[in-house]
Design brief:
about 100 residues; Arc Repressor Mutant, subunit A; three-stranded antiparallel β-sheet; about 60% helix; alpha+beta; 2 domains; single chain; 3 strands
């Protein structure tokens, strides 16, 4: 994900593989990119016989999407949010209050 976010443009699997610090096989990179696309964290565009991939959001946006998906499946959202807020540090609680107040 970091490779794609740092690229600033869509990359195909071969380009991603060349930018990785590990020696992953091309097929492994394709599998990982396909799975990430399947989880809706990447977009892809067909270019010739291959796909080029790009992240749908930056890292904070991806975390927010995961939180929203988790909340969407909860029947008692109030209880979940209450427990979440109770578990925040004082600093995070202040930040959340500022964000909710519109700064």
């Amino acid at each position: 994900m970091a490779v794609l976010q740092g690229a600033g443009r869509p990359l195909n699997a071969s380009e991603v593989q060349s930018l990785l610090t590990s020696d992953l096989a091309y097929t492994t990179v394709v599998t990982i990119l396909s799975r990430m696309y399947g989880k809706s964290v990447l977009t892809r565009v067909k270019e010739g016989r291959a796909y080029s991939y790009a992240p749908v959001s930056d890292e904070p946006g991806l975390v927010a999407r995961r939180m929203h998906r988790t909340m969407a499946g909860e029947a008692d959202r109030e209880a979940v949010l209450a427990r979440f807020v109770d578990s925040l540090s004082d600093q995070d609680e202040r930040l959340l209050r500022e964000l909710l107040d519109g700064r």
